[in-house]
Structure formats: C-alpha cells, structure tokens
UniProtKB/TrEMBL annotation:
One of its GO terms (molecular function) is hexosyltransferase activity. Keywords: Glycosyltransferase, Transferase. Residues 37-193 form the Glycosyltransferase subfamily 4-like N-terminal domain. It comes from Micromonospora globispora. InterPro entries: Glyco_trans_4-like_N, Glycosyltransferase_grp1. The keyword Glycosyltransferase applies. The keyword Repressor does not apply. GO terms for biological process: carbohydrate derivative biosynthetic process. This is Glycosyltransferase WbuB.
Amino acid sequence: MKTESSVRRVVVLNQYAMPASVGGGTRHVELFGRLKGWQYRIVAGDRDHASQRPHSFQDPHFRLVHVSGYRGNDHRRVISFATYCLGAVVATLREPRPDVVYASSPHLLAPVAGWLAARLRGSKFVLEIRDLWPQSMVDTGYLRENSLLHRALRALELWLYRRADRIVLVTSAWYSYFRSLGIDEAKLEWVSNSAEPEDFDIQPDLIPLRDRCPVRGRLIVYAGAHGPANGLDLLLDAAAELPEHTFLLIGEGIDKQRLVDRARSEGLANVQFLGMLPKRELAGILGGADIGVHVLNDAAVFRLGLSPNKLYDYLAAGLPVVTNCLGEPSDVLTAADAGFATPGDLTAGLRKLADLDDATLKEMGRRGRRYIQDNRSRTVMSARLQRVLDEVVGRVRPANAEQRGPLEAVGGPR
C-alpha cells in the first residue's frame, strides 16, 4: 500500500483542458490519469474555447478558474489569457504543495503562471510546448515579425525555456528548433499526442455516424477545430470535385459559419456539418466513417513539425487517413501503412483512397489501429510522461538516449 509520503503531487496548468466526458482537449486528463504514484489537479478556464460558453462539468481532478470571454483574435483574447494566468497562480497556491507545476502552451501566459507558482511553492517547473508561440502567430499572419510585440514574446519564450526544469515537446521534429536557440537537449523530452484504441470501439448505445446525416458513396470525416489554420476550404474544394462521396465536418471554431455559408452558396449537397461532440460520443461513432481527413493550411511553422490529435484519433478508430502534410503525419501514415500523404493536392489523396475496395480500406484501418496501440497510445505516452516527472523529482536517474528505447524510430529525436 502506498503511504501518503510516497505519493507525489502535480498541478497542471492548461486553460483549455477538458475531462474525458467532454469534447475538446483531453490530453492531460488521459495522460495524468494513467500515472502511478502521482496525484494530479488540472487548473482550467471556466469557458469552452470554441463556443465561449461557461463550462458546466464537474470533475474532482479539475479546478476551474474564471476567464473573460472573447471572440476572434483581438485584445479580448489576450485579456482572457491574463485572467487565466492570475487565476491559475491563485488556484495553485490554494492546492496542497505540489512537487511539480506542469504548465502547457500554446499561449505563453500559462507557462508564466506555472513558473511563478512553482517559485512560490518551491516546486519543480515542467514546461510543455504544444505550439511554437510566437513563431506560429507570425506564420499564420497574426503577428508581424520583428515588431515590438514579436520581440517581446520571443524574449519571453527564451526566458521560459531557460528556467524550466524540463521541457516536454509533442513532436520530436522540434528538437532542431530548440537546439538552434541554444537550449540544452538534456532538458527536452518527446511526449507525443496520442489516442487509446479501446476508447474508439464502436458503442452500440450511441447513434451511429451514418444515421446522423444522409450518406452516399464513402463517408469522409473531419473532426476538429474550424479555424483559419485548419485548411477546411481545401476540404470543401475536394468535396466540390468528389460529389459522389459524403463529407462530414464535426466541430466548432471561428470559421464554422463561414464554411457553412460557403457550402450552402456553392450547392455542396454532399457536405454536412455537426457541432462539437463529447469525447466519448465522438470516439464511439468515429469508426462508422470510411476515411479520416487531416488537413492544414500551408504555414512555415507547420513545416517545423506538428503532432495532430485528430490523426491519431482516426487511426485509433480504425480509419485510413489522408493528410496534406509532410513531416510527422506523413511519417506515421507511412510507418503504419494506413493512408496517404498528398501535399498540395488533398483531392488526389481522397480520390485514391476512396477508390479502394472495402476489404483494402478495412485492412488499412486495422494496420493503423495496431500502430497506434504499439507506438502512440495514451498508455505508451503516459509511460514517457511518468519518466519525466519521476526524473525531475529525483525518483529515478535520468535515462540516456539508449535507455529510452525504440519509440523514437518514427518521429523521435533527431
């Protein structure tokens, strides 16, 4: 039996974290919930990122702090970040003293709150990078390079990297970026986004995906954010060229209404939209599609590396996948032999996959699911996170590259 002194505590700061019962960002509850010998509390904002409606869920592993609402990417979003930062520090001070404060980007004020809370509580500070701010803001057109704000955010970025006890990256392709900044590689650890295949078994008590919209031909599904970076106009372009197949877009975002209006105005009768679904519901019906789509607009920051949740969700659900991205998405599909990467021509990849016979598609789906089980499951990645936390508090000696095993074979440290 574990004694109280043998159990370590970690506070996780992520404004947009969600419990597994709700759609959205469930990375942290799924990873930290699998740790051994650790108690965790996730400090999240009290508004849904996509809809901006107040949260109604209650979960003992979550502490919600008030954040101001916003629409779009103006100053009100920055104010929301700031209110979360202040609330997160106060919330951490009210918790029993944590051994580790684990703060996650994308926005940098959450890690600032994490560093401050760790200093005030005498805790270790682990920084998780899920988006390369501010570089991604420059590459997607939200921030002018070398502007005063850009230089200030770049200075803050470097300041945080140098003060973190460890830095967790969702894609190992970023190792070279951090080396270019002079960050000690011994600080870095790869803990990919991931999915647990058993969570994506078809659930008979849920309404099947094919009963939620009229379907003809292949059912091609996109499940994720509907924002400017997500490249969904490319998906509507593909739908226009493949009218014999059905395209279903699931999720929310600031571009959602514009995309709905475009599909209606162009008479794309083969395009259907659903709102965001709770995680369990989406997982329990996703395997009812034929093909999953991962798509992004072309931006320089994505060429540095990415680790897309939806790619792993599709594969865990047994769906073959088409992506328009090179790098890790392409590498994973090649290693799994479970789909195609067609940069520059999403339509060609979808047509190629849709033309395959049912048996071939199902076998591709089985291969993808096996690959996720062995290499990118939540269980596999939680074990990597376990090592990071145990090392940072001195429970185990830091592992060298050889001891870290073969997980880096695809998308691992370079």
